Amino acid sequence: MMFSMAMGDFVTAVNYHLPMVVILLDNRQPGVIQVEQMTEHYPEFATGQLNPDSAKDADMCGGVGIR
Hints:
Number of helices: 3
Number of strands: 0
Number of domains: 1
Structural class: mainly alpha
């Protein structure tokens, strides 16, 4: 999952000072979408994009991002 898909939840956790640790692993492709495409025998489309720097995104949302 890309950080942008869960950013709303992250901002809520920061807002309420919830003691959470979020770990993101970057495999350079949205795997869930790729699996759906393979299962439905669709051609692979738009799954090779690069993800933005999630640590910087976390900092901008008021959390602490470490890369």
